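Thanks for the sequence, V.! I ran Nucleoside-diphosphate-sugar epimerase right away. Repeating your input here for the record:
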Amino acid sequence: MRCVVTGVAGFVGSHLCESLLSWGDEVVGIDCLTDYYDPRRKEQNLRGALEHDTFRWCRDDLLQAPLVDLFTGADVVFHLAGQPGVRPSWGRDFATYLSRNVLATQAVLEAARQAGLVKVVYASSSSVYGDAESYPTAETLRPQPVSPYGVTKLAGEHLCELYRVAFGVPTASLRLFTVYGPRQRPDMAFSRLVAAAVRGGVFELYGSGTQTRDFTFVADVVRALRDVARSGFTGVANIGGGSRTSMNEVLHLVAELAGPLEVRRLPAARGDVRDTAADTQVACRGFGYAPRVSLREGLASMVEAERATTGATSESLFRTGGRL
Ligand code: UGA
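Predicted structure:
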């Protein structure tokens, strides 16, 4: 496939890009290296991709880049770029969320239309559900986001649906459920947790720890992204890890894998949903999705990566249980 990956230097984008290149696909990667976290970390994420001569790297903002030119001739655009972070999305920063999650998504869809109806796979989020009416949550339930971030991700999904219906741009939105693995964003729970356990720091837990998440290993997400691109599926599908685990259970698991852990308990964070759990039947029927990596295996690979002196990530799960 000839692929475009937006947000190519991010956590999921860089894993997706490396996997596509290793499978023989061509990739044009776009990223403007925002300073939400240290851009040097993102540059490091691209090291593997830059070794391939089938990778073309374009450092640009989606609202400025010549997207029609970049998309022309592509089989698929994986639109992963965006402003992440549930908890910081309140207040004055909302304009950034609007620009990077809504305006940028519209720019991508418009360019995909003009470039000849290129397929767009959009990285949506479980946060569109808010505190869902039932668990595991199916796509047919009414989304009710409880954070401004979730509102912008839902708006992006609606734009995808609109461009599909109005112009025939084939779009698929995957609602990703709390993705984790080596290179996870430094503001997310597991990367902080594993760093604290391995390096001996303190992990700050928001709330009672009874909140649950359907944590999804990044290799499972990468496989879902590629499989949906190669399928005829359009519409919305959940991508979950297959089990619902509380943060308290995660703390025990990390302590087992990496040694004792110091935890400071803080109040719950505004905008955090209480629970998530994905019903993945639509993804299973639509493009054969089933998660393969257990939470224990996935966390063990993060611990191993953190311990590696070079800072290089562990690839063991990608060779075995997490076959892509
Ligand atoms: C994550 C991503 O950050 C979002 O971009 C994504 O859209 C979302 O998943 C999703 O699936 O919709 P979140 O579930 O908040 O959001 O992921 P984590 O940062 O890993 O947090 C998991 C739980 O740990 C939350 O209850 C959070 O409050 C808690 N947490 C997080 C802590 O207790 N301490 C921390 O330092 C960070």
